[in-house]
Amino acid sequence: MSSMRVDLLVVGAGPAGLAAALEAKRHGLTPLVVDENSLPGGQIYRSVSRSPLADPGVLGPDYLRGRALVDAFTEAGIAYWPQTLAWQISTDKRVSVTRQSAGGGTLQIEAGAIVLASGAQERPFPIPGWTLPGVMGVGAAQTLLKASALVPDTPAVLAGCGPLLYLFAWQLINAGVPVRAILDTAEPGARREALRHAGGALRAPSYLMKGLKLLRAIRAAGVQHVKHVTSLRVLGATQAEAIEYVVDGKAQRIDTALVLLHQGVIPNTQVTRSIGCEHEWDEAQLCWRPKTDPWGETSVSGIFVAGDGAGIGGALAAEPSGRLAATQAAAMLGKLDTAKRDSRALSLRRELASHTSIRPFLDALYRPADGFRAPADDSTIVCRCEEVTAGDVRRMAGLGCVGPNQTKSFSRCGMGPCQGRLCGMTVAELLAQAQGCAVPEVGYYRIRAPIKPVTLGELASAVDAPEFLSERAGFPK
Question: What is the rounded CA–CA span in Å between residue 183 and residue 193?
């Protein structure tokens, strides 16, 4: 396989990745950014430089803010390879990539340092009927709006918890799309628990004001807002026809052909797990995240994680996170002395703290309820790829399965195309519940390369670096 070498390889072109690349160039490194998408911006700023929406302003000022970052990145002339999948990364910082256009082709990159900016993914939300046509994640629906200007042609019911639930409802209202109802699954005591962290929240008043603005707009639009929902079930024979929910022990029903589910986001750890980086359980955010030092460096020397992939902090926190990682990478590679590194880090850490002080408040306010993380109904599918149910996982626990990797041998759970992204957290929680232990004791799937599906044809079509580079604008010849 042909190979090439770069100073710093950045995987992901969201706010953390773009900021890391800009910072790296500032310190004299030659960065290369690879990304699966066709345009820079990641999920948060998806298509912001070339929006298909007649009025991108319907997505809000936070979205439009990303245009300045994307423009700065584009004008900097940094090497950027869109539609490029990094499917294997080794501890010696060799990265195998495949281009997903121009006929494919595989190339290996040797990097002096790597910044992983793979971002977050939606937390699995397995409820009865969630695999029916007409049910999808809020994040996926938002992607369709940002990337293709596609909006629902029927009033949607949004169910779950988390800031994105309300942000997307507000965006739909701005786009002229009626929202049928919001079914809030946050527990009754969540607000009281969140108030314990009010001090940190008050240090970030802009976040609080933004949340109040969304709620006021949703209320003004006359959207039905149901709180303290304790059970959800999508009804329908071949597609979604209604959603049933329980409040105060009473079942109620809303007829709808479109249900959008969301209960927060978690770090996408597939890449770091495939490398062999150490991970730790975050009890506040109820998720795994790679163990990193204050610069974002993982347990594998020279490999950093920036942005939501290292712990959920949001787009504004992702930028200083990416810059910190690139600053340390520049020092490691001899482009920056310790004094200048530390001086630069002072302002970056202050900026990061200004955006993360509110996280304990938000984590408590939108903590997903136990019953929605580990479904009680045994017939609920938890592994969509292999159609494994919650009852199947509980039976495997009864047979002696102590961790997710054993469930693979028993049921192929986690062996489908998503490689456990949509079931890993749920399976771990179900096993922990069945064994009466904590999730960290259960562990997580062992992830192996390729971290996403790659065809045999792509693996066989290794190309020389010059041929690969001919399709990639901006790389220094």
Answer: 20
Phi-psi region of 383 (alpha: psi -120 to 50; beta: other; left: phi over 0): beta
Number of Cβ within a 10 Å radius of residue 103: 11
pLDDT tens, residue by residue, 420-469: 999 999 999 999 999 999 999 999 999 999 998 888 888 777 766 655 55
CATH class of the region 3-121+266-336: alpha beta
Of the candidates 279, 442, 282, which has an alpha carbon nearest to the alpha carbon of residue 367? 282
CATH 3.50.50.60 boundaries in the chain: 3-121+266-336, 124-263+366-371
Q: What is the CATH number of domain 124-263+366-371?
A: 3.50.50.60
Query: 3-11 and 303-305: which strand pairing?
Result: unpaired
Domain topology for 376-442? Arc Repressor Mutant, subunit A (1.10.10)
The pTM (predicted TM-score) of the whole model is 0.94
- Rounded to whole angstroms, the Cα distance separating 437 from 439 reads 7
Which pLDDT band holds residue 322 (cuts at 50, 70, 90)? Answer: very high
Do you find a cis peptide bond into 52, omega within 30 degrees of 0? no
